[in-house]
Design brief:
60 residues; mainly alpha; Secreted protein
């Protein structure tokens, strides 16, 4: 029965670690001002327009 406990604890630790990663990414995403977001999007559009060899569906 002891290995079931270890498996359960490992599962709980994995869920907690995933939650931490998601929360950290969300905080980083929300830290941008609207102007910073616009600037980044414009840069991405310019970069994808400058690379015509990139397939249409794969542009970032």
């Amino acid at each position: 029965m002891r290995w079931w406990k270890m498996l359960g604890l490992a599962g709980i630790a994995g869920v907690a670690a995933t939650g931490v990663v998601i929360a950290r990414a969300e905080r980083r995403r929300r830290a941008y001002t609207p102007e910073e977001i616009r600037t980044r999007l414009r840069e991405r559009v310019e970069a994808s327009a400058a690379d015509p060899d990139q397939p249409e569906g794969r542009r970032s």
